[in-house]
Every structure is written in C-alpha cells, then in structure tokens.
Design goal:
heterodimer; A: alpha+beta; MetI-like fold; 4-stranded antiparallel beta sheet; two-stranded antiparallel sheet; 11 helices; 8 strands; B: mainly alpha; globular
Amino acid sequence: MDQPQRTSVPFWRDVRVLMILSQIVFVILLALLAGFFYSNLASAMRDRGLVAGFDFLQRESGFEIGEGLIPYKPSDLYGHAFVVGVLNTLLISVVGIFLATILGVLTGIARLSSNWLINQIAAAYIEIIRNTPLLVQLVFVYFGIFVKLPPIRDTLEWGGAFFANQRGVFVPRPLPSPTFDQWTSFVLFAVLGAFLLWLFLSRHATYRYTFYPITLPVAWLILLPLAGWFLVGQTPIDFEIPERGRFNFTGGLALSPEFSALLTGLVIYTAAFIAEVVRGGLQAVRRGQIEAARATGLNEAHVLYLIVFPQAMRVIVPPLTSQYLNLAKNSSLAIAIGYPDLFNVGATIANQTGQPVPVIMLIMATYLAMSLTTSVLMNIYNARIQVLEK
Amino acid sequence: MTASADTLGPPPTSVGVIGWLRKNLFSTWYNTALTLVSLWLIYTVVGQLLVWTFTTARWEVITANLRLFMVGPFPPEQVWRVWIVLCIVSVLMGLSASVYGGTMRTFAVWLAAAFATLIVLDLIAEQARPFADFARRVAEGGASQFWLALPGMVWLLVNLALLALGWSIGRGRAQWRTALILAWLGSFFVTVALLQGYGKDTWLPEIGTNLWGGLLLTFMLSVVSIVVSFPLGVLLALGRRSKLPAIKIFCILYIELVRGVPLVTILYMTQIMLPLFLPGELRIDNVARAMAAFTLFTAAYMAENVRGGLQAIPTGQIEAAHAVGLNDAQTTLLIVLPQALRMVIPAIVGLFISLFKDTTLATIVALLELLGVGRSVLAQSEFLGLQTEVYVFVAAIFFVFSYAMSFASYRVEEALGVGKR
C-alpha cells in the first residue's frame, strides 16, 4: 500500500469487510441456533427412546387404509403405506384441478355476463365461498351432506346410472371393449395429425388472417375419433352401470364419501378463486384492443381467439398456477374428514412408529417436490405464452 | 327542463324499469332463457333456505351454547375481561370513525347496528330474565357479584354508548390520526395482558392460553400472528433483496420452503416438534404453539407481499436518497419502507383475511377455536345431528368478518389509488 494514510479506511469501516463480517456473524448465529435445537432434539429423543433414521419405513405397518390406487394390506411396509397416501393426494389434486378449472372458467365468464341475474348469482357464489373457511365448507359437506345420505335401501338415484347413499357415490365406469385398440389408433392418428396440421398452418398461414390455424386441426381432432367410433363396429368403450346388490352396489365406479366430499369441497372452493382470476384476466384486456380488432374486420370468434385469449392468458397463468398449488396443498385438510391422503397417512405412521421427526420431514419434502414440479411446469408454459408479446 | 315540445323523449321501453329489464335481463332470446332458468333456481334455493331457516332449523343449539361459541372454556366468572376488551375496541372505533371518517365511519355504523341488533334479539329471547337473575345474585352474593353477573345486554348497551362517546370526542380532531394508530397498537398489548392476567390469587388471576376459545381464540390467533409476522415478514423481504449472499439465500430458502408446504404440516410440526426442539424445562402450551405456526407461516407470505411493494419503488427514489447523503439503512427506513408498506396495505388485509379463515385449521390439532367449539358442541348428546345449523352459524360468522374486511381493503385500495397508475 503506497496510498497516503488519510484516504485509507480502517477495516472496521470498510464496507467490503463489513459485508463479509456480517455474513459470518449471521451464519454463526444460525449455526448456534441450529445446534441449540439439535442438542435439545437429541436429548429429548434420547429421553423418549426415539431413534433417528428412516429404518421404520421397512417395517410392517399393520394399519388399514380406506382406499387407494394400488393394492395395499396391513401386512405391507410403512413405505408402501406412504406411497398409497402420495398417490391418493395426486389423484385428488389432478381430478380436483381438472374440475375446478372447468367450474372456475364457467363462473368467471358468468361473472362477466351481460345478463344481470347470471352475473349476480356468480358474484354471490364467489363471495360466499371466498369469505368462509375451506375447512368449515369441508366438514359441512362431509358431516352435513355425505354422512347424512340415506342408507342403501333408500339410495338416491339419477337416471338409473348415478347413485348416492351412505357408502358413497356410484357412477358408471368406462371399460374398454374388444374394439378399443382399433379405436385408439384412430385417436392417436387424430392427435398426431392435428398437431402436425397446427404446426404447419401456424408456420405458413399466420398472415392470412381470413382463417385462423386452429379450426382445421380441432375439426380433425374431433371428427376423426368420432368417425372411428362408428367405423370400428362395436362401441369401443362400454359403460359398466353400478348394480344394486343386497348389501352394496357392485360394478361401476364407487367413490367413497370421503373422496366425494373432499373433491366437492376443494372444487367448489378453488373454482371461486379461479373465477376471479379468469375475470381479472379477461378484464385486463383493454377495451380498445377489442374495438380495434372489430374495426379491422375480425368477427367475434376471431376477436376472442386472436386478440382476447392470448392477452388474457398472460395475466391468468401466474395466479392460476398458485391456485392449482393451493388446491394440492389444501388437499391436506383431508385429515379432518378421514380421506387417506399423504398427510393423513403420514400422521398415522408418525403416531404408530413414534418417529414424528423423520415422518414430518418426509411429508414436507414430498409436498415441496410436488409444488416445485408444478411451478416449474407452469413457468415453462408461462414463458412460452409470454414470448408472444413481441 | 330545456326540452322543447318538439323534442321527443326516449321511448318508454328503453328507459326506467322496463328499459333496465330489457337491457340487462331480456336483451336476446338466450339471455331471456338464462334469466328464466336463474329465476327458477333462485326461487327453489332461496325458498328452501328460508323455509329451513325459519321452520326446520333448530337454532337452540346455538343459543344454548352461545358463551362457548364466543369464548370457549374461558372461565365464566372472568368473561368481564372480554367485555372490557370489547369496550376498548368500541371506544377506539368511535374515535376512528370521527377522526378518519370514510371506511372507518362505515364500520362504526355497522358495529353500532350489530350491537343494537344483538340487544333487540337478546330482549326478544330472554326478556327480563337476565335482570331478575342479576338482582338475585347481587342480593345473595353482595357487591362482589356486581360485575360478574352483569347481563350481556347491559354490556352491549355500554359498548353502544362508548362507541357514541368516542365518536363525539373525536369530532374535529384530525390531529389525533397518528396517536390513534399508536392507541390501536397499544390496545393489542393491553388486550393480551388483560386476557392473560398474572399470578394466582391476584385481582386478575392468570388464565392460560389453553383456556382461550371460541371466537375469542379465533381473533387472538389471527391478530397475534399478523402482528408478530409483520416485522418478520419485512425483515425477510429486505433480506431477500439483500446484497449479502448468506442472508439472501437463507431468506429465499425460508420463504420458498414455507410457501411450498401446506399450513397443516407446519401446525403439526410446531405441535409435535417444537417441544422436542426446546429445552425440557421450557413448556409452551398448544395455543402458543399454534400461534407460532401461524406466525411462521404468515411471515413467508407477508415477505412476498412486502417484496412486491419494495419492487414497485422506482430506483430513482433510492438514488435520490443516496444523493442527499442518506446511507443504506436510512434510505430503507425513511424512503423505501414507508412508500412500499403504504402500497401493500390492501395485500396485507387480504393476507389477514386468509389467515383469519386459516385459523380454523387449529381445530385439527385439537384447539377449541370457533370451528373446534362447533365440533365439540355437536358431540353433546342433545344436539346430535345438527351439523347444518352449527356449521352454517360458524360459516356466517366468518363470512361477516371476512366480507367486512375485504370491503375495507377494497375501499383502502381505491383511496390509495393502487392499480390505477
């Protein structure tokens, strides 16, 4: 250092040194806190005779799980039981997101209807649902409706194919018939063809705005499987109608009261939020855009498809993603009504094994993985539609 | 007025009631169809609902357990503390109504209307019985019974009077704006101290948080959590924008970790793991643990809201602050935060509403907040099978408060001009 003494800064006032120093202090404090927690945890676990680690996953579980996508019996391992719970959470999330999107989009559009009555009904639905807790709605739907359904001999019936009673809801189940494989090839061909068609048209026909590149592919996508349905001779999908036995229904798709209640509650709740997202997105498209589009001679369908939707989607997708994530996370309230989801099964495992620490870590890691995967996928989609801006 | 005789008015079918109906309900054939279907739907649903509410429903499950719903297992002879808390709120509300005007005035009017309605309902249901009861108890137990046996109706009247008193005192005193905010904040600590009490045989014996319940607990859980999570959230938000990588990484990890998992797992973790993490001699009861869970959870969301506000501050503001010689800490405290926090007030109200609703999750870890009380009431043998009544009542309470708050947030948003830029 050959700088004169008076311009040099003492190290305790040097910003660079201070920055590094404060970080070191922060990390040390954090480590001390973690160490404090860890030593308490270790002594508490020693006192209660708990052992760390995930060995318990290899032991026999010995408890029943009400329902699941994969076969499971009490003599299976804890790890297996956990997987059943994870699959149940995935099932309710995927079905819930699908149905909530449909109901939410319809309600959001109804909220913008020029019909005052429809508009107000949608508004009342949204306000009532959004301003009451989900858990209250869930226990209401389960204990107030599904548990109170009539016993089997007084089963409620709609059109001879849909039934509801204390044991749950019974709906027709689609089953592949012998001609199903032939029909699948039609469907595959339709999907592939429609995609290629769309790719070709969107590359080469963008500037001929007199037709838009989606009509033909969509028509192809709908008409070909429809034609195939009749061409293969026998209907490719049979519906197995539930039949009333003496003690229970056989055949068909049986949805347990817990699953039905959780699904109903989650869909109704999330749809109200999605409706607001959709409404916000559609309203975010400026009036001038629509008027300008009409002025250039586009018809109403063109205006919607070419002008409104692309701009609205950009506004809609990010909050929609967080609604999807909320639905998946909210499915953990299943424990209040006894649906065996990831959290419910996890809590049972933690209780039985006396290993709350590793189990809760496992549960949190699973939810985190699900959240992050969804976020990444939706971010990719979001990035795609945002590119359209240029 | 200026229309001459030759100027024709608009045709009667396009103005007035008929015009409105034509325009909004019967503009096209499918709108007409939709209108008719909706009318039929409203007729069936609302009709059945009204019939149920006034004939079938057995509301005695609510009236018989009203004290449980309001305060849960809080000792009945100490309920006067809750009334005092309500009195403080009434005075502050009255003051705010005249000092701030606007939304606060609307709220004060609603509150007064609520008090009046409750008094009338109470009079209809109980008539003079509480007063006779009160006279008997004071005659038997002497003056010490006076405060304990005072009928709720009297407390409600006192609250109504205090509301009016606050309003008349605060008139024309706009200079109290800042003091009033501090008073609201101070009332929070007074409330906690008053409800908690101290010692065993003092004039204000200690009531553990495990005895708080009902709507009281719902409020305390949400208010305590939002108040404590606010500074945490601001720190996390600042940390996330920090230039120091260690702090930045920690804040990002914390926020994303908490936001990635359901609230119920965090509740469960604090219930089961917090006692393991703390030294054995430090015992905290399960209400405090639930408060910790809600606070930790809300802090992450608070941080994201505050970060939104921080990002909206133009860099010019920060550069200008540096140019006039403020250092980083001064810039943050005096320039950035005041503007950022002002901008995120509506978002924080929204966060409070969802926290308020989320407190119902405490019932999963066996706390007796409003929903928990509802479930325990349903376990009483004489009220079996009255789920609909109880849950509708609980939902209605949540609806009233949440709706009022979202209304307030909307008004604040308009007043601040957020989203109008």
